[in-house]
Amino acid sequence: MSVKVSSNKKKGLFNKFLDIIEVVGNKLPHPVTLFALFSLAVILISALAAKMGTSVTYDRIVDGEAVATTVEAVSLLSKQGVRDIFSKAVSNFTGFAPLGTVLVAMLGVGVAEGTGLIGSLLRKLVLSTPKGLITAVVVFAGIMSNVASDAGYVVLVPLGALIFLSFKRHPLAGLAAAFAGVSGGFSANLAFGTIDALLGGFTTQAADMYQPGYEVGIHANWFFMIASTFLITIIGTIVTEKIIEPRLGEYKGDSKVDIDKITAAESKGLVWALISFLAYVAVIVALVMSGILKSDAGEILKDSAFLAGMVPIIAGGFLVPGVAYGIASGSVKSDKDIANVMGKSMSTMGGYLVLAFVAAQFVNYFNWSNLGTILAVNGANFLEATNMTGVPMLIGFILVAGFINLFIGSASAKWAIMAPVFVPMLMHVGYTPEFTQLAYRIGDSTTNIISPLMSYFAVIVAFAQKYDKETGIGTLISVMVPYSLLFLLGWTLLFVVWTVLGLPIGPGVGIKL
């Protein structure tokens, strides 16, 4: 079964544009082959760039001071480059960030699914939740998952597809809605997340260049991000229901979720799953509050075991109630049943492992070549050279950050390059470092969902192929482009209104110095 766009209605220009993206994208080879071709292209381009002497110089912060750093294009066809291609192929794969996250999380999720817990929860959700709220709930849950760092990619995105399928809606629309919330709304949240601490550290260092001793806290953008959470939820819901689902049409695949009433045994299982989950959470909270899972400095969101162990903690959050549900409902008779469902969940990841291997090589080749850094610095220099001021300059900054995001997936890597340029520059014209950071976060979040260089992009393609084996990069990008464009537009408009009104962007944090 392949995704076919409904042709019953006359298509507008935007839908025709999305059709072109999908058709052209899906005319490309299989994603595995495509990433292999991308890897080859990076090798050849790096050799050409190195031969031409391509390089950039930018200020890198070392101990609070700007140090001029020159980065040159590195040829992967050089002696050392060829050596690295062969000698680091295995470590590229095993060190690929999403690989461990996906496999460890799937151990817990696999148990929850194999014992029947997820199925029962979905049916409970369908039977008790108004149909009109489901899309908003999926998008909102995706946004809130950012508190747990990258866990949303491997937990909520596939769950979004299952939730929509259980409502007899197209699973790819549910996958897209969850992906839009998790990745497109990455910076929005009602609570502080790891990204707040991560970016704040770089912003503090950059601000120190202009005003020594300036501190940027994790609360820096909180008020704006609270408002953004509701904005992204609303936009994501509208895009899903008014654009994506009509394009995808009716789902005609083989996957399905039965919506029978919850049996007495399943109800008992759900009760014990809830009890065990609360007990598990209590244990984790006790470990955090006692200091065992905090950092040596007593931090929770910075350099802590709690932060570093988020993936196994999430996996345990599915494993423990999954086992409790299985025992209470009768679906688990012995430890062998648990081991079997774990093995079964891993057996479904074969296609992803192949894709992850090739994608890992591509991402590492791109990093080794320094092409991403060269693009980022040139983009920053271009914006600086335009000499724009005020709101137009800030909008230009957002757009440049979004463009660079297509080539460098890591939010911290991009900000480490851009912060030393833009934070002092905008402080000089009167804007707070926190406000510059906020503008960056808008551009950084909105193009995540259309960049194959985003480390979890291959994961989402693999999830989509569960429901449509012919789904390719073109399908996924064409589905996500409306979210990306409208998130960027809506978020930028909110940013402009916030700027004009001069509202505080966080507790005790304003727009102007």
Break the fold down into its secondary structure elements and pairings.
Elements: H1 13-27, H2 31-51, E1 55-62, E2 65-72, H3 79-87, H4 89-94, H5 97-114, H6 117-128, H7 134-144, H8 151-166, H9 171-184, H10 194-210, H11 222-248, H12 264-289, H13 305-308, H14 310-329, H15 335-347, H16 350-369, H17 371-385, H18 390-405, H19 411-428, H20 433-446, H21 457-464, H22 473-501
Antiparallel strand pairs: 1-2
Q: Can you tell me about this structure?
A:
The protein is mainly α and 513 residues long. It has one domain (13-501). It contains 22 helices and two strands. The chain has a two-stranded antiparallel ribbon. It is globular, with a radius of gyration of 23 Å. The chain starts with 12 loop residues before the first helix and ends in a 12-residue tail after the last helix. Mean pLDDT is 84; it is low at 1-9.
**Terminal residue distance:** 57 Å
Strand order of the largest sheet: 1-2
Rounded to the nearest angstrom, the radius of gyration is: 23 Å
Helix content percent band = 55-70%
What is the number of helical segments per DSSP (H or I, 4+ residues)?
22
Q: Average pLDDT across residues?
A: 84
Task: Briefly summarize what is shown.
The protein is mainly α and 513 residues long.
Distinctive features:
single chain; 513 residues; 22 helices
